[in-house]
Amino acid sequence: MSESRENSFALPPTRKEAVLRQLRGEIISGRLKPGAVIKDAEIAARLGVSITPVREAIAQLAAEGLIDISPNRTRQVTQVTQKSALELVDVMMVLACAGFEWGVDNLTEHHLATLRRKLDEFAEHLRRGDATAAGAAGADFSTVVIMASGNRELQTHVDLVVTRTLRLLALTPESEVWNVWLNGYRETLELLERGDRSGAVERYRRIYRDYRTLLETLLFRDEA
């Protein structure tokens, strides 16, 4: 592999999947910023693959809402506006909270132990300043409960929205934003461990309400 290629870029399991993971990660982390033009040839050269898997990955990212394709075929990282961001959080709240409510009664001691581990990972990644890993661990926390509902179709839709929600988190590195999630997850788990499942559902729901409020004041403070 040439020195110009990304050192951390791995090809398995398929070239399309590898390119997809790389570009998705760059968009979520903010390395590829909103409005950045995506050029097939440049990405292919940088990652050391042919044009075909790059185009396939871009098509998938467009379906996920992370890349916009204009009528003239120009591809850009989707812009984040106040309206789109708040609508995204609203949709995420509906989906995730429904899954959480449906799954909470099926939680076992094993599930609770997994939630504790994910919470610890989330806190540790935040301590290290790794927002991408923290976001993934936080998403896993919710996934444990949603998957306990047994509704895999719901989880599929949640996964699509989670990717874009993680990008919003990358755009808001302020500590108070992350504290909304950290404190919310911690208090939700404490309620679950005490057997207060209805209280846990309400506390989980409040995470999204609090995050939405902060998003308005932090990410878009300069918008008219």
TrEMBL record:
Keywords for the protein's UniProt record, in alphabetical order: DNA-binding, Transcription, Transcription regulation
PANTHER family noted in UniProt: TRANSCRIPTIONAL REGULATOR, GNTR FAMILY, UXU OPERON TRANSCRIPTIONAL REGULATOR
InterPro entries: GntR_C, TF_FadR/GntR_C, Tscrpt_reg_HTH_GntR, WH-like_DNA-bd_sf, WH_DNA-bd_sf
Domain of life: Bacteria
A molecular function (GO) term: DNA-binding transcription factor activity
Record-given protein name: DNA-binding GntR family transcriptional regulator
Domain HTH gntR-type: 13-80
